[in-house]
Amino acid sequence: MVEMSCQEHDKLAAGSQFMTHTVGRVLDMLGLESTPINTKGYETLLDLVENTCRDSFDLYYGLFLYNKSALEMVERLDLAFDALRNELFGRLHHVVRKQLFENGEKVKSVHDSSYQNGAASAFSSNALRYQDVTIPYEFKGKISGSVDDNSKLKVAIVGFGNFGQFLAKTLARQGHSVLAYSRTDYRDAAQKLGVSFFSDANDLCEEHPEVILLCTSILSTEKVLKSMPFQRLKRSTLFVDVLSVKEFPRNLFLQHLPPEFDILCTHPMFGPESGKNGWNELPFVFDKVRIGNDERRVARCNSFLDIFAREGCRMVEMTCAEHDWHAAGSQFITHTMGRVLEKLQLESTPINTKGYETLLKLVENTAGDSFELYYGLFMYNVNAMEQLERMDFAFESLKKQLFGRLHGVLRKELFGDSEKLEVLQEKSVRKNGAALSSSPESVKIS
Ligand code: NAP
């Protein structure tokens, strides 16, 4: 039971309930669907749509028109969405200009050409991806017989930031030997986790890890990979990445790694926030891009995958292309919505609805991630631009629905019956005109 003034109620409800309905309606227009690799955040979005889609437009319009603070909320949401797009496009502009003018180089990198071809290739690659779709298979059942439960790996984490440290905790707990290398000095953090830290990549590679686990930001991965002293590693090393986009690292690995190295592309579809209470049932996507036939190499790859299977992850094998197609429509939209809402600085109120609580959860889920990560999702997934445009279109359509109705109501008030009269008169003139033109006698009469 919450006692408050009607005025106070309306103010709080505009920022919570009306906002929730607005976001729910925008998402509903996008026609979101469940994917085989839903993140927790994306499931929050699906819940939100479910929560609001059954309400009539009249109800929503009522929340908008009869609450004087609602218009301000639409404006704030509009501004927040614009601000986020400006951040993305401003960065694009800066990067492309830098490449064009400062280095005097032609824009030639994979990601830039994919941006320029964005819209066109999004469609062509969608068609390709539909053909590519593979049925996710249960990894757990397949490996349990083939991997020795005691097999421990020597894993070198390259990029020991937020996510690298998050993964290291579980690897170390499972008894694997964990090494780390990063441009920042993480000696203390590493020590607390029982990880050996190296500030020189040469020293790290001379330890001959069996697995190199790349946890660098999407944007820095190419630079970091190219700087690795491959010659100091064992001839057979397994390279794994955890980037939130998949085609990009796959192509990089194939392009730059010596042919005798194995390649496993993965995406644990959770993070320090969504996975803080364990990884059970959280999706782990993988693509065995190049694993040698040798029994030991196959076993090494399976031992690595087993780290996640043991924690209860839902192991989903799919191609990198298929992953990116699903992820743009789910993960990128989730991050975009989370970031837009974060800008609104939503706060818990004494009258939170369930739907509003899902919004708050969404912000919590995405707020800890760096802008680098989000920009990477946008820039390095060919499908992301199209999704951003779709969100923009959905929001604009919703505004048109609201303001169009306002327009109609006000015109009715302004012109009331006179407008109706005008229309009727116009109709009767047209009718008479038609009658006149079809009867020559009537002309005479007139
Ligand atoms: P991030 O901002 O994407 O990456 C931070 C990492 O990148 C740090 O280790 C940082 O090293 C390194 N880095 C950034 N710029 C660099 C540069 N110019 N040169 C060398 N290293 C550079 O944040 P994150 O959350 O830790 O994510 C790491 C990777 O995991 C990303 O590829 C992300 O897509 C993926 N991932 C993240 C999540 C998540 O929930 N966070 C979930 C799944 C996958 P220093 O710290 O040494 O500067």
TrEMBL record:
Gene Ontology BP terms: tyrosine biosynthetic process
Example of a GO MF term: prephenate dehydrogenase (NAD+) activity
Domain annotation Prephenate/arogenate dehydrogenase: ranges: 153-432
Record bears the keyword Oxidoreductase: yes
UniProt-listed SUPFAM superfamilies: NAD(P)-binding Rossmann-fold domains
InterPro entries: NAD(P)-bd_dom_sf, PDH_N, Prephen_DH, TYRAAT1/2, TYRAAT2_C
Pfam families in alphabetical order: PDH_N, TYRAAT1_C
Protein name as catalogued: Arogenate dehydrogenase 1, chloroplastic-like protein
Keywords assigned: Oxidoreductase
